[in-house]
Amino acid sequence: MINDKSIGRRLFHIVNYTVLMIISLLCILPFINLLAVSFSSSAAVSAGSVTFWPVEFTTKAYEFALSGGAFYSSLWVAIKRTLLGTFINLALIVLTAYPLSKSKQKLMGRNVYMGFFIVTMLFNGGLIPTYLVVVKMGLIDSIWSLILPGALPVFSMVILMNFIRGLPEEIEESAIIDGAGPVQVLFRILLPLLKPALATVGLFSIVAHWNSWFDGIIYMNNPANYPLQSYLQTLLQSFEQIMLKSGSDYTQLLSMMNARTGRAAQMFLGAIPILLVYPFLQKYFTKGLVLGSVKG
Amino acid sequence: MLRKLKQQSPYHLMLIPSLVLVFIFSYIPFYGLVIAFQKYNPGLGFNSPWVGWDNFSHVFSQPNFIRTIWNTLYMSIFKIIGGIIVPVIFALLLNEVVRSSIKRTFQTLVYIPNFLSWVIMAGIMLDILSADGIINSFLGVFGVEKISFLGTPSIFPWTMIVSDIWKGFGFGTVVYLAALTSIDPGLYEAAVIDGAKRWKQTLYITLPLLMPTIVLMTVLSLGNVLNAGFDQIYNLYSPVVYQTGDIIDTYVYRLGIQQAQYSIGTAVGLFKSIISTILMALSYFLAYRVAGYRIF
Do the chains contact at A229 and B119, CB–CB below 8 Å? Predict the structure, then answer.
């Protein structure tokens, strides 16, 4: 664009930067406030003197959260669920997207299969019938109730299918001429080429599994089986009650830390994994959108 | 024919795990929708006695339910409108920034909240919006009396609308910014030669060229008119604000899961699904016709 250095233009830039700065700060300051609260003493927090820097610095809230108990066990459930869930998602995405990337001449009934999956994107049985099926399958209180109902993310599968269709056909054809069957073609030839697309849909799955809380609340009767986000959800309402139930050993801690600092610390810990993968997310999420659309 | 099928069999075998899981967790719940027309009895399951449209006429005679439809539409429509206007303006302002490193920094900051769960966002909001939280402290400096953002029925919907836009506008910004960078700089150079000032350039070049993307994003959000954001509202509402804050999804959850009125909950869910599906099919159709976008 053409550079112009008039006074009006300069004024515009000053106003523009200020507006952008304010809006961006509005997005980030609440997190900094949360972080400051989590590292402050409860007295300072109750007095309302904490803004963006810890007052009377203490790590008690974190020590309490990580010392065991519900936070710790739910963290393990969340890690297990995210790893296992993402692995199963990716396996099913690959196994489904590859055959469906074939034309209907090469795969009989291809369009019927496709329709079978697409329908579930447009319409679903809803909360209660799905819940009743999970109950009937005996999955209540099992980690599989968090993984199997969404085992095939159809949107991600479509993204990968479009990606496979975008690869040059010669790669596969030459492998077939060399005598490779569909299974070898998929695992030996295609899989290495699919890495960027798999990274994209894998990140979708990681974020979805890590962030989901509602399925944990409805499918787990025993709070000991809650994944982290479901546990954090219970904190929103009843932090004080949980603290009191933990026994009298904590009375000393309670004097240093009230509900707000403890909640802030645990919320922040729950956000850390997302913040760690954020640079990759930023890179791949928009790419996923581009991959997902068919050109033409 | 048989030989062909045998040759293709590895492809069909690969599809089996997905077919089975999708059948169980998506198609059996479709069948489970029959309980919307039954009086559900846990012993009989989906073979409970038929009651015709009784569940529907019962729920539609409830003023509490009619209220949720209105609340849902009110919040979702303003969320959709704000969710388009805010990122478009932010992207336009960001596009005027010359240094790409500064541009990227702003973009990075506003995109973060998008990836965090509503549980964590709600935790942050409960903290900053509380009586002695940072927002009320800030407003207090200007002599504004403490506002109960989450406990006042007239304010609650707007707290939801604004916070939803706050969490989500980073994503829209990234999409619009991508569209903006693809605009041919030659157009602006030609406009300058014709004597068009910055404002005119934005009005007559940038906005018209951004229109397809804006239309696409609008059309795709049409399918969400009945989704006012369960995750957000469930984590932030309370009986005090049911009057203006209760939405269809939270109503279904309380009725269907918490009070175990499976049939009535399913009836409401079915009503919502049918309208949403029509809207979504319409939006995909429009997106294809207007913007040439398709995902299948």
Answer: yes
